[in-house]
Fold:
Amino acid sequence: MLELPVIRELVSRCLIEDLGRGDTTTDSCVPHDAVGRATMDAREDLVFCGAPLVEEVFAQLDPRVQVERLCDEGERLPAGGAAISLEGPSRTLLKGERLSLNFAQRMSGVATLTRSFVDAMASGASTRITDTRKTTPGLRIVERYAVRCGGGHSHRSDLGAAVLIKDNHVAAAGGITPSVTRARAAATHATRIMCEVDTMEQLREALDVRVDVVVLDNFSNEQISAAMKLIDGRAVVEVSGAVSKERITEISALGVDVISIGALTHSARAVDLGLDWTG
Amino acid sequence: MLELPVIRELVSRCLIEDLGRGDTTTDSCVPHDAVGRATMDAREDLVFCGAPLVEEVFAQLDPRVQVERLCDEGERLPAGGAAISLEGPSRTLLKGERLSLNFAQRMSGVATLTRSFVDAMASGASTRITDTRKTTPGLRIVERYAVRCGGGHSHRSDLGAAVLIKDNHVAAAGGITPSVTRARAAATHATRIMCEVDTMEQLREALDVRVDVVVLDNFSNEQISAAMKLIDGRAVVEVSGAVSKERITEISALGVDVISIGALTHSARAVDLGLDWTG
Amino acid sequence: MLELPVIRELVSRCLIEDLGRGDTTTDSCVPHDAVGRATMDAREDLVFCGAPLVEEVFAQLDPRVQVERLCDEGERLPAGGAAISLEGPSRTLLKGERLSLNFAQRMSGVATLTRSFVDAMASGASTRITDTRKTTPGLRIVERYAVRCGGGHSHRSDLGAAVLIKDNHVAAAGGITPSVTRARAAATHATRIMCEVDTMEQLREALDVRVDVVVLDNFSNEQISAAMKLIDGRAVVEVSGAVSKERITEISALGVDVISIGALTHSARAVDLGLDWTG
Amino acid sequence: MLELPVIRELVSRCLIEDLGRGDTTTDSCVPHDAVGRATMDAREDLVFCGAPLVEEVFAQLDPRVQVERLCDEGERLPAGGAAISLEGPSRTLLKGERLSLNFAQRMSGVATLTRSFVDAMASGASTRITDTRKTTPGLRIVERYAVRCGGGHSHRSDLGAAVLIKDNHVAAAGGITPSVTRARAAATHATRIMCEVDTMEQLREALDVRVDVVVLDNFSNEQISAAMKLIDGRAVVEVSGAVSKERITEISALGVDVISIGALTHSARAVDLGLDWTG
Amino acid sequence: MLELPVIRELVSRCLIEDLGRGDTTTDSCVPHDAVGRATMDAREDLVFCGAPLVEEVFAQLDPRVQVERLCDEGERLPAGGAAISLEGPSRTLLKGERLSLNFAQRMSGVATLTRSFVDAMASGASTRITDTRKTTPGLRIVERYAVRCGGGHSHRSDLGAAVLIKDNHVAAAGGITPSVTRARAAATHATRIMCEVDTMEQLREALDVRVDVVVLDNFSNEQISAAMKLIDGRAVVEVSGAVSKERITEISALGVDVISIGALTHSARAVDLGLDWTG
Amino acid sequence: MLELPVIRELVSRCLIEDLGRGDTTTDSCVPHDAVGRATMDAREDLVFCGAPLVEEVFAQLDPRVQVERLCDEGERLPAGGAAISLEGPSRTLLKGERLSLNFAQRMSGVATLTRSFVDAMASGASTRITDTRKTTPGLRIVERYAVRCGGGHSHRSDLGAAVLIKDNHVAAAGGITPSVTRARAAATHATRIMCEVDTMEQLREALDVRVDVVVLDNFSNEQISAAMKLIDGRAVVEVSGAVSKERITEISALGVDVISIGALTHSARAVDLGLDWTG
Structure:
């Protein structure tokens, strides 16, 4: 869920970005007492999310605007489907239109892309598709939510939320074993120790020191397959490294637990949503 | 240019988003006195930008980090080319790595996409490729800068920066003529009056009331061609409406002044940049 | 219009400035359940504005306070006229009294001064009286609104909202022609190119490179008259340079489009408004 | 003194107000490596203050700008006198010019007006001229400083800084005695109890309950004179109520301790200061 | 009283501290439409305060939560007594539980400790127990309020709220007389001049220059007694210096006006309050 | 480590809390060019921490102040030992004294209390002493750091950092098994599933569904002992529930992994640190 105290501050800042110096066009052309109705509609097949942001945009502009959800967060909408209905002062609807669409289009874009990765999994696979920390600066909480709306899962939220040992940490600490030992001693007992490995040898070492999660970075399908045998349930298995949608079917069929995909958030295009005025 | 007072606040907020609860992994694995050197390198052909953000990220973390620009903002970098060199405490480099890449990858992604649109213009055309208000919430100033680094131009920065009369304004005001009349009376003399038109009839009316810019929305190439004859230099001509890269050559050859493209900012994928450690 | 997201932040900050450490006097002297009624009254002839700020002050303090507007924004009030009625917990009325008056007195002061300049125009003149960027730091949006309430118009909102070439830019660029050429290439197509000129020669050059607005800086009436003949409708004409109210009649009679006056915002005195308790 | 942590936040906010969307004019016309020198000069006789704000404006824009104070805070400058010299990148000087002048002109305006009131005092009088809470919203700390630079003194900084019982408090509490009693019980022992009185009778009552400061509101010179005899050193005496400069001489000659004047901050005009380029 | 504009900002910030990245546990385990009821109960004898913070926590999370006060601020609650009842969406109650308790436990802890000092006063004594500036960074306004709820009083709120001359000021100024003279000249007439003294000689000097408050720092009971005779009503008398609860009875019996105690805020333990679910 | 971007914002806010309206006492009594030297000294045996905050306080006030650390963070200082030396403008030292002490006294108080719990552990025990979410609102990051300086460890940082199923979650979900199942499905693979249990039966169920951490809430020593046998290494074992220092020895001897203690942060008293002037 997106908690109100978090999005309140975000929406306020973004409203000021677009509307901080007024909207002369709307104020001059549209009578102050005009009332309008509109629906936010899908203009292509998509997975919709973003209603909490749309609601907050209009709540901050004018409490008289009524926002009604016409579909669930994470629901598939066909082209032409309606996601949200709006009714209120026409001026307010016009002033909040762009920001509410900018949120919904991007968030639904992330959800839709995620859903396509999830749908690409091998039949019966229980692999998770997750995001990474490669999110848009300032919008991480929103994008992680959108990934979940698309059927994906979240990875650690930030540098403080779990230990994830990468190649530079290993190099600085002098190996996987000392890295894990030091990190385990420092980390809270509430978080898992995750360790990225590049080779089977590193994988063996990571298993020996009993990390919770091994991250197979840039492994080929064959290497993943061999790794799975070696791991044999001793750790959660995450695969990372620019995994394309094409490889999802194969990798998920190998039984890995997690495939993390930076593209979900760093390269999702906005989907096409628009406001159609109905009165 | 990106002014320091603006990006200072943005970078601070985004650093806290990722690092606000510390980085146990790095603090435990990397000695506090280790010093590192790295370069931010292109992993594909791209147009680079984002150095001011990278500099600010590290300036806020630790003033001892030295950041050197190895290429200009907006410069084309081939795969393997180096954009920025970093030297300083290894811990700091690791803590700022992700955010600096998140900024640079997205900004360079926008610049690279923009450049591809600019390069698609007809030979000799002086048409401008511009962004729109369809930017990422909270990052408009940064994305507009990236568009310019890619050879594009900016559109109006926000609702307060110019009058742009759209279909809903026309409908509310009862036609193009009253819309323009009212907006001109309300707007400052420092901004232009821009008017979106859907038909040749609307175009004629907009020219009659002497708008500064006509925006031909969703016109076919033939319609644009006819519109250009009608306009005959009486207004700046902007073409909008989901213009694909393929149509850029043709439209720019028709002599329009501006093609505005929401995709530059709402659908640019991040380009591949990485930090390579050299010591 | 003053949008809620903008004034919400401003009012919150200013309430904390005055009330951040409590109001012992009121809390000790006034019973918590006392209810009061008051009107904000003009104590001299004035043009009133500021109701949105007054409403927001009390909305943030206690939603039970009822604020009713007794006159329109920008309406002339004679001494003794009532602008706003308030009803609610007496403690809250007392705590918000000073800030709401500080806003209303200053804003009405700007509106009243502006109205006096507007009223000084030659009969039938369509000249605009505008503000400048010489506004009170932090209150620009509010003061620009007050100028419009007084019958004036706004100038560009900030450095990013239009190009305005001044003497230092001309000197740095090596003349008016290169200044305008460079600025036009850099500026968005949504903004106008404005150029300040000190002499007829500069004016000629500015017209030759077809600026949108010429700003005649410190021209005498005779020089303005000569300039108008030269310009002959080829550009919007703005006059600037400490224009006194006395000269407004003459200059507006010359047919200039705009007279910009820093004094509207940098030297308006507060008008006398007070809270009269009616129960 | 103006402490850095306080003005840092203020200056940052105000820089973003003016420069948040860039300065296309300067960036296009002025070479990035141009260096300039300028002095901030008085264009009329004035009392200068505001250097800490000017310094902070340029420190935040570019630490390479050198700001040198050529006069003391609160020093009288004749027309033509130089207050501050600036040297640094020309672009930065131009971008910070307006805000630094907006601060200095307003602050020096307050200081200059205050000085004129102070100078109007009777020869040998030790009366203090003070401000009130009628300051510009958001700028109280800065305006109080300016009053002190002009030879004035500060009144209580905000509602929490002292007890000041006014007519509405008296009415709500049922008289001066209960007001003072309750307020004294509630107030800290570090603050004084001040009480506004409208009549000699109220004054007598206030003295009987031993307030620290009596505020004679809207008393005529004769009434003040009579009051002084009655008070006879038993309380600090403050005179308030739209005291004009003309009455200052007479009132100060009566030996009152304090004359508080809202006009110092609510109605000071900006004085004329400008930036003169010297290279 | 705690004013809404002040605690609104504080509560928002603290909610984000705990809930800024969501509450997966609650969102997954608790149905979105579950409704709960709970009371905040004392688990030991205590003086309760903090209701305004608890109300604001839930108001910001979800306006549907109903918060009812079951006791007054500053009321003594026996173990088992109920302070507040809550009813609303179970998820919201769980998400706000910890922060509302963190506020109430600490604030009630301060109030309870204060009450124990107040209760330790000699029978009939009118001495005030006050806090100091030794408050928790960022929570001063809240802790001062809690002290008052416990029957204590406030000291000066911050460095700007009164003059308090300490040993270092005396040393720097060259004695008590020059310190007081300079400070009195600089301070507003609305604040008192307080001076810390370490010896009878310093006390004599402070009385000679007529300070409003003398602060007897680290005086023994005998020294206090001697000082009281010397002072003889000529100044308010404050005793400071790590006064233990045991000495309160004796010192208050000596007739001092104020005993200031840093421990009230710097060393109060949280009292035991818990949320008991009733449905 | 405490990262600069995080404490920068905190220190700025707290400096304004104390110094936002200036320090008249210091500015009037202490010459502007006086230079002072002081050390922050322990006045009782303690574990010191807080140097990063002290450094930041003075860095923000005046970069000329030199702050030198005389001991390590987390080092035991005997009464009389020096923690930090300061040298710089006397005015600045006085203005920052209180806030820097407020931080250091509280943080060192938490560290000292934590150390006493750690020292109470059975010889050879590897049990961790951790904090909880019962931290001071707004200071969580700082207090968690202090706990670690005292030899303790951190618990989950906030609601979003790990799953911790408590009695209300169990009740709402209809048992431990459905709670864990749902939470595991919802939680990231980077966090652990922790479950509070009140009975041996609940413990059995939690182990059956393989939670990562079991939290034995309010178990007697005997119950803990029995639980340890049952658990037999299948989960990390945390003991919670108002564990006194006296019980630490016994419980740690039972081999539990973690004892979490709210008192470390909610009830630590400030230790006595003072600034001693040396010149």
Notes: Chain B has eleven helices and twelve strands.
